[in-house]
Amino acid sequence: MRILVTGGCGFIGSNFVRLLLTARPGWIVENVDALTYAGNPANLTEFVRPFGARYVFHKADIADVAAMEVIFTKGNYDAVVNFAAESHVDRSISGPLAFIQTNVTGTGVLLDAARRHKVRRFLQIGTDEVYGSLGPTGRFTEQSPLQPSSPYSASKTSADLLALAHFHTFKQEVLVTRCSNNYGPYQFPEKLIPLMITNALADLPLPVYGDGLNVRDWIHVHDHNEAALAVLENGRAGEVYNIGGDGEMTNIEVVKLILAELGKPESLIKYVTDRLGHDRRYAIDSSKTQSELGWKPRHRPQQGIRETIAWYVENRAWWEPLRKKS
């Protein structure tokens, strides 16, 4: 199998490349990444060396039609897994056009190239944010209405629908996953958990939006990627698969857990003006993925977050240069 992973130098994508190279020893993995601010070659540089020709890197923008044509012409891929995305909600509010370019146009370019070059499978990696905000009860299922609240989630909704349209129109073997909030090693320190960890380590204020009671369903990146691989290999074409960690916690609970684990005072917490259009609660029903594919999350959020804190403590040389980009 020869797999094209896009966005493979980002947080989730780089962890997925690691999974493929170790868990599927007969596979060749090619990685396309534009290396924008969140695409970090250091996520993979040392790790991939022993795999030699089984790993190939292409620096390119997925929205660049000519560049993708060159890559697909040479690649002869069995599958594409599209992690490439602008993903930070705050950045989408201040500059939404970049999100449309990468998340919508880029996905369209990839789908078209995959179809013309007869790539058998196409996995679109999505987000639970396409469903909008939940009330205090219930969970998102694959049948929940799509109600995106931010330019980011609207662009990801568009990408999902474009991918599914290619299944219905062109009969491409397209699959879509929608995951809850990932955490774990190699996450760029603008996101909640790594931002709070790195700020706490530096004794800087920990900014918490609003009252801090927004709820997220936290999933360890390794659990998410194992589910994504199961969907890639055994999912039904044209289907959506939700991936959740069964790990609901409020933002303030996460922040206080981090402070307690690091022995830092809660006086570092600084409540700030809430984000525009901030969704109140997400929760994922992943029973379809679990029952059809035999997957289930292995990490409970409290322990997984503690392990993540330890990783950031031990890997200052990785994240300290990135804080300047945040």
Short précis:
With 326 residues, the protein is α/β, with parallel strands linked by helices.
What does this structure look like?
The protein is an alpha/beta fold and 326 residues long. The chain contains twelve helices and twelve strands. It has helices at 11-23, 45-48, 65-75, 89-94, 97-116, 151-170, 192-201, 221-234, 251-262, 287-293, 301-314, 316-319; strands at residues 2-6, 28-33, 55-59, 79-82, 121-127, 173-179, 181-183, 206-209, 215-220, 240-243, 248-250, 269-272. Strands 3-2-1-4-5-6-10 form a seven-stranded parallel β-sheet, sandwiched between helices. The model has no long low-confidence stretch (mean pLDDT 95).
Give the tally of structural domains: 1
- Rounded to an integer in angstroms, the radius of gyration calculated over CA atoms is 19 Å
- Overall pLDDT, averaged? 95
Coarse morphology: globular
Helices and strands, in N-to-C order? EHEHEHEHHEHEEHEEHEEHEHHH
Q: Major sheet: size, sense and barrel closure? A: 7 strands, parallel
CATH hierarchy class name: Alpha Beta
Distance between the termini: 37 Å
CATH architecture: 3-Layer(aba) Sandwich
Per DSSP, what share of the residues sits in E-state strands of 2 or more residues?
Answer: 15-25%
Strand arrangement, major sheet: 3-2-1-4-5-6-10
Per DSSP, the total helix count is 12
| Name of the CATH superfamily | NAD(P)-binding Rossmann-like Domain
- What is the percent of helical residues? 40-55%
Structural class: alpha/beta
List the helices and strands and how they pair.
Blueprint: E1 2-6, H1 11-23, E2 28-33, H2 45-48, E3 55-59, H3 65-75, E4 79-82, H4 89-94, H5 97-116, E5 121-127, H6 151-170, E6 173-179, E7 181-183, H7 192-201, E8 206-209, E9 215-220, H8 221-234, E10 240-243, E11 248-250, H9 251-262, E12 269-272, H10 287-293, H11 301-314, H12 316-319
Parallel strand pairs: 1-2, 1-4, 2-3, 4-5, 5-6, 6-10, 7-9, 8-12
Antiparallel strand pairs: 9-11
Helix pairs in contact: 1-8, 3-5, 5-6, 7-9, 7-11, 9-11
